[in-house]
Amino acid sequence: MSIEEAGTATPMEDIGPIENVPLRVQVANRLRTAILSGRLKPGTSLVETALADQMNVSRAPIREAIQILENDGLVETIAYKGKRVKPLTAREVEEVYSLREAFEVMAVQRIIERNTPVDALRAPCEAMLKAAGDDDLEGLVAGDEAFHRTLIEIADHDLLAASWKSLYLRIHQIMALRSRKDHDLQAIASNHPPIVDALAARDMDRAVNLISAHTRNLKELDPETIAKTT
Amino acid sequence: MSIEEAGTATPMEDIGPIENVPLRVQVANRLRTAILSGRLKPGTSLVETALADQMNVSRAPIREAIQILENDGLVETIAYKGKRVKPLTAREVEEVYSLREAFEVMAVQRIIERNTPVDALRAPCEAMLKAAGDDDLEGLVAGDEAFHRTLIEIADHDLLAASWKSLYLRIHQIMALRSRKDHDLQAIASNHPPIVDALAARDMDRAVNLISAHTRNLKELDPETIAKTT
DNA sequence: GTCAAATGAATTGTCGACAACATCCAGACT
DNA sequence: AGTCTGGATGTTGTCGACAATTCATTTGAC
Q1: How confident is the model over A133-145, as a mean pLDDT?
Q2: Which residue of A46, B27, B120, B129 lies most exposed, with the fewest beta carbons within 10 A?
Q3: Domains of chain A by range and CATH?
Q4: Which residues form the HTH gntR-type domain (chains A, B) (predicted)?
Q5: Do A110 and A119 contact (CB within 8 A), yes or no?
Q6: pLDDT tens profile B149-170
Q7: Which residues 168-227 in chain A show a CB within 8 A of chain B?
Q8: Is the complex ipTM higher than 0.95?
């Protein structure tokens, strides 16, 4: 039965197209999740044949999946020797955060220059404040990601969005290795609303300074996180 | 004749280790060159089997090479339909140049903040001025790339360098499609020395404004270039 | 005993064949 | 005439086997 005929007999709701996801994408997603959750630690060696056996697929999709993760910057390959989860160095963490700062500053500038509405940022702010009140770390992290993703999205710049997304994967990875007590939920949540206010007021200097400071604060937290992994 | 036998008879100088470059890299380089030179125009369909026949290799390295180019942003894949050289839209050109501006501004800020020496930028400037005098477009372009590559390199930020490099590939592609008369050699060459002066003087505002203006000037040139390709 | 060459194990690199999927066209049926 | 069906074709997706390369270990000569 082809996809077009699907809805003729019974009126069924739109569940969207049936996605036939290639194996390489499934494999890449599984590996990525494992890396980002910290289950696959930096430095772990990834052997194609072993992974192929574990997942019951041939090596071809595994290779392609690993190449995808390599583009994400999560894995590195050494020819004829092996592939491994990219080790996190202090330098790399600094670079990730500083590049993220540049991306978000660019987004802020673009939003103000083009007079883009910023209402979409209010909801994530509320969610974060609520999560902070409930001492809900997961919720806070989700809200934080939603906030920054939205910030990048409304900047309406596909290339920036793609670059930011790739970079944010590594931030996920770094945060997963960070211990819980390092987070001050209330402080993180209350950082965001002033950014939205400055954007709404089209106050370029204030908005840039706030987003810049916000990103730099996060960077400060991580030196000892790195020490644990290398 | 194989590469190993080539130099045995005559005493040869040290050309470094013999790099055994994987086929995928060789293929990727050939395809990339073809795309950047404009020989493979945006929209051209890339068929794995056809390329494999042409280059006398199997499909595996071709696939991996195409995936490399996909990461470079030069090729896009549509599942079960085909792969093609990514079409250049006006929007994409705008995004490429605006992101490049952000990258170079970041490099400038970093160079000034960290008090990095900028002497390495003088040589490319000289080369460009000389090339402009000789009406040597190739030389000027090479000098321009050397200047900006050096700018990024002395910023000492691997992630920034990698991102910039990938972005610059597309700028190559765009420039290759641009007609010769659009270039004002003298103007381009003389744009660069003031940037170095501002950097050397650690004058943040002036340096940022100059590099920003320089990048924006380039962007202005391209609308009609795009019209020709899409 | 020490150093160099050979061997072997582990891993990625490459290949050719077949499967899955989408598109297009021809032909049958209404 | 129009439309649906079925197959032919072109392309990517996946597989299993073999080749190439590296590194560690063992072997052998001196």
Answers
A1: 90
A2: B120
A3: 3-85 (1.10.10.10), 90-229 (1.20.120.530)
A4: 21-88
A5: no
A6: 999 999 999 999 999 999 999 9
A7: none
A8: no
8 Å CB contact of A99 and B92: no
State pLDDT tens for residues A9-58. 333 444 455 567 899 999 999 999 999 998 999 999 999 999 999 999 99
Q: Would you say the C-beta of B80 is within 7 Å of strand D?
A: yes
Is B102 within 8 Å of chain A by CB?
yes
CA–C1' span, B154 to C10, in Å?
A: 40
- The encoded tokens of residue B110 equal 């970093």
Q: Do B67 and A64 touch (CB under 8 A)?
A: yes
Q: Which two tokens stand for residue B65?
A: 């090479």
Within an 8 Å CB–CB cutoff, is residue B22 touching chain A? yes
Nucleotides on strand D lying under 7 Å from protein C-beta: 10-17, 20-23
What distance in Å separates the CA atoms of residue A13 and residue A215, rounded to the nearest whole number? 43
How far does CA A130 lie from the centroid of its chain?
22
Burial of B22 (0-12, 13-18, 19+ CB in 10 A): middle
